[in-house]
C-alpha cells in the first residue's frame, strides 16, 4: 500500500521538527542534528532488536498457557521470526520515541510508546496485506507491538 510510506516520512518530519525546535537551545543546528540522530539511532536499535521478540513471545506464551500447552520450540521460532513482520514497525516506534525522548516523561511517555507500538504493528500488518481485512486479524500484531514497546520503553525512558 502506498500509505505505508507515511511511516518513514513521519519519522523524517519528526526528526526535522526536533532539529528546528532545539536549534536555538543547542547553539547550532549541527549540534541539534547530532543529538537528534544519536537519540534516533539509539531508540531504533533498542526497539528494533528487543521489542519484536519480547512482544511476540509474551503473546505466544499467554496463548499457550490459555490452551494448556507449552511448546518451547514455538517460542524460539516466534522469537526468531518476529523480526520478519515486526522489525520495521519497531524501528519506526524506536525512532519516534528517540526523537521525542526529551519531551516524554516516564509514565505518559511509556503509554505513548505502547499506543504507538500497537498502532504501528497493526497498520504494518494490515498494510502489507497479511490480514483478512478485518480488525480482528490485526490483534496479535497490535498486542505484540504494544507489549514489546512497553518492555523496551520502561528501560528506554527510565533516565528521562
Taking all Cα atoms into account, the compactness measure Rg is 17 Å
Q: What would the principal axes of the Cα set say about the shape?
A: elongated
For the sheet with most strands, the description reads: none
Q: List low-pLDDT spans.
A: none
Which percent band covers the strand fraction?
A: under 5%
- Derived from helix and strand composition plus strand pairing, the structural class reads mainly alpha
| Span of the ends, CA to CA | 36 Å
Mean pLDDT: 88
Transmembrane segments: 47-66, 73-100, 106-127, 139-157
Keywords: Membrane, Transmembrane, Transmembrane helix
Give a written overview of the molecule.
This protein has 160 residues and is mostly helical. The protein has one domain. The chain has helices at residues 6-26, 29-66, 72-99, 106-127, 139-156. The N and C termini lie far apart (36 Å).
